[in-house]
Amino acid sequence: MGNQSLCTGFTFVAFSSLAELQPVLFIVFLIIYLFTVAGNLIIICLIWATPSLHTPMYFFLVNLSFLEMCYITSVVPQMLVHLLKETKTISVGGCAAQMYVFTILGLTECCLLAAMAYDRFVAICYPLHYTLLMGPHVCLKLAAASWTTGVVVESAQTTWIFTLPFCGTGKIQHFFCDIMPVVKLACVDTSHNEIVMFAVSVLFIMSPCFLILFSYVRIFVTIWRIPSAAGRRKAFSTCSSHILVVSLFYGTALFTYLKPKTAHNPETDKATALMYTVVTPALNPVIYTLRNKEVKEILGWGEIFYLILFQKGYN
């Protein structure tokens, strides 16, 4: 460490190179954030208020919607504040808190997407045993296991990261406290830490990914064996939304967390991070409403009901 002093806080570089565009970025990200929170809240309330949607698939969707609201809230409000300020600072404790929340929610989403894939696997491959294999207690256990895995694994990893001494300028080449940009500020050799973190990423990101892939291989084989084209379309439509969400989430997560340290570029990392912290949570409500027949029908009836009431009030 030599004569370097320890950091008592960090400064985000964020979008400093786009100083003229920061007011525009503020408006864009604020609209996306409000849309995401409102969209996921609508999904949660719609499922809660509709008894016909009280099924395992929608139970997991409620968990996912709640998680996405927390996920985007762990990053975007702070980013919005920093877009209006010249000095974009955060304390070490604040940075640790953000990393705890963000990483816990990220890993929980990996596990939750795997649980949702298992639900579709049972529904399509074993329809006669679906109510037995996916009863309320099983759903609760799968959801609890997802959240527990996220909390235990990422709490341990983040605590380990913040036992490192940080020194130097304390400039984080990012817009939030992501793992690699923070680890780069450590003033000790972090090669062993990085190997362990990479192993954790491979184990706990790829394991759910392999479960999802295995589930969908079995699902596609089962769908292919359905004799009628209408039956195949109906079976595939029940899991198409989940496939899109998994592709968006895992596409960016694998690109970010499983590439070697030498391949990390600050600008590329920021662009990729915007995809999984802002864009993906915003697209999930759209995907699950526009591509879900049951939700669209309920929203359609709600609109008709509103128009009838409005018309009566007007008359």
TrEMBL record:
Keyword Cell membrane on entry: yes
Membrane-spanning segments: 29-50, 57-77, 97-118, 130-153, 195-214, 235-258, 273-290
Task: List the Gene3D superfamilies.
Answer: Rhodopsin 7-helix transmembrane proteins
Question: What is the annotated role of this protein in its UniProt record?
Answer: Putative odorant or sperm cell receptor.
Q: Tell me one GO molecular function of this protein.
A: G protein-coupled receptor activity
* CDD domains found in the cross-reference section: 7tmA_OR10A-like
Q: Does the keyword Transmembrane helix apply?
A: yes
The UniProt similarity line reads: Belongs to the G-protein coupled receptor 1 family.
| Source organism per UniProt | Rhinolophus ferrumequinum
Print the organism lineage. Eukaryota, Metazoa, Chordata, Craniata, Vertebrata
Recorded hits in InterPro entries, A to Z, give: GPCR_Rhodpsn, GPCR_Rhodpsn_7TM, Olfact_rcpt
Tell me the ranges covered by the G-protein coupled receptors family 1 profile domain, including all copies: 39-288
Q: Which Gene Ontology CC terms are recorded?
A: plasma membrane
The UniProt entry, under PANTHER family, shows:
OLFACTORY RECEPTOR
Keywords assigned: Cell membrane, G-protein coupled receptor, Membrane, Olfaction, Receptor, Sensory transduction, Transducer, Transmembrane, Transmembrane helix
Q: How does it sit in the membrane?
A: Multi-pass membrane protein
Q: What is this protein called?
A: Olfactory receptor
Location of the protein in the cell: Cell membrane
